[in-house]
Amino acid sequence: MRPSLSAVLTGMVALAALLVTAPTAHAADPPLRDLAAAKNKAIGTAVTGSKLTGTYGEITAREFNWLTPGNAMKWGSVEPTRGTFDWTEADRIVDFAEAHGQDVRGHTLVWHSQNPNWLTNGTWPPAQLSQLMTDHIALEVGRYKGRLAAWDVVNEPFDEDGTYRETLWYDGLGADYIAQALTAARAADPAAKLYINDYNVEGVNAKSTALYNLVRDLKARGVPIDGVGLQAHLILGQVPSTLQQNIQRFADLGLDVAITELDIRMQLPATAAKLAQQRTEYDAVVKACVAVTRCTGVTVWGFTDSDSWIPDTFPGEGAATPYDENYVPKPAYYGIATGLGGTGTTPPPTPNGCAASYSVANQWNSGFTGNVTVRCDAGSSLSSWRVTWTFGAGQQVGQVWNASCAQTGAAVSCSNASWNGSVPSGGSATFGFNGTWSGSNPVPTVTLG
Ligand code: XIL
Predict the structure, then answer these.
(1) In terms of domains, do 191 and 279 share one?
(2) From the CB of 231, is ligand 1 less than 6 Å away?
């Protein structure tokens, strides 16, 4: 069917507007780690050691200056059977960090969760329990002595009402287990900053006040304590308004504060509106840290939705991290960038001297034609390719030529057809599609992966 004259005219007007308003040049943002360094802050991510290759490894190295092992240093991971140790994954992460000029936050020594069964199921008289704990700390902290910048020595000691959580440690040793653990950690590595880490302590509330009183008293008693970790597993729309004030009150005690496990989860499916709100909230959390000198930085709990604990732990929720499952930066990524003082506009760098670009070739009342070109510089080539992006305003891909595309929610992923996977040095491949739009049709940032 031929479009009507008025549709063609509307399309031409829209196209002209697009050409005129297309951004010409933005001040380029460097990677997040460079933005953070310019503010004297850390930007970190939790990582899975076995994934530190390919795109996952490239992004980890390029964007972050701190790493936290997501699971690899937990007691259950390192000593699954009593006296039998597995440091493979933890070593890999520390080696990777050193190779890429990154600091490591050890996580975590004394916790109620992810302990080995032999420990959890044992019956331990107090003296023996204390010895087990301090031996474990001496061994693990000692193994990485001089190589780790910080340790989450004690994790999650409090209940929501600010009373001590009843754990293996508290039940056996009383609240003094915390001082014992910190003292053992300091002895094993005097250079590492020692933290107590917890969740739901981001705003001023009963739990964060209990943490505040604890660290104030520990400091007064001369127990080694350098900082508090605010995990910040947040829910979209529920960033505490007292975040900065809370960070400041810990800082005023003479302690460092780190945001250690930031993610902002939402009910699935993710929509453009929720992702935009998430961007604002990532920006706000990062800014709250940047505003307080003693806030050392922000670590996200996994940088990609494909490596996030949220969907398994909170069924129906997800999309909590700054990159989607295909490693495409989400609006949240740009929120972190602006939080760190960047412009939040830079498209991500492209691997291997090849890049993809997206243009709207034609647009009419409710439809448009998009073109995507994959281009390689001289000296670079591809034998297959995949281009991904996130539509910002509810656009939907329809008919596609010269590629095959799948769209899930706002996320689009297109891979080459059998005949155009190879892009020679200095050459290009192009595909196109018809899509639908309403309201607006912003050009997405595309990633070649
Ligand atoms: C989570 C990991 O991300 C998951 O892979 C694991 O199954 C459970 O633990 N608070 C913490 C982290 O301190 O260690 C937790 O990590 C998330 C909550």
Answers:
(1) yes
(2) yes
Each residue of 417-447: pLDDT tens digit? 999 999 988 788 999 999 999 989 988 888 8
Reported as a single tens digit per residue, the pLDDT across 371-384 is 999 988 777 888 88
57 touches 51 (CB < 8 A): yes
Confirm whether pTM is higher than 0.70: yes
394, 303: one domain: no
Q: How many CB atoms lie within 10 A of CB 133?
A: 23
Residue 435 host element (H or E): strand 428-436
Q: How far apart are CA 273 and CA 319, in angstroms?
A: 13
Residue 323's domain comprises 32-339
The CA-atom distances, in angstroms, between 381 and each of 53, 216, 387, 425 are 20, 59, 15, 5
Rounded CA gap, 54 and 397, in Å? 28
Helix 88-99 × helix 54-63 angle, to 10°: 50
Residues 421 and 333 in one domain: no
For ligand 1, atom 15, the nearest C-alpha belongs to: 70
Which of 201, 301, 307 gets mutated to test ligand 1 (max ligand atoms within 8 A of its CB)?
301
Supply the CATH number for residue 142's domain.
3.20.20.80
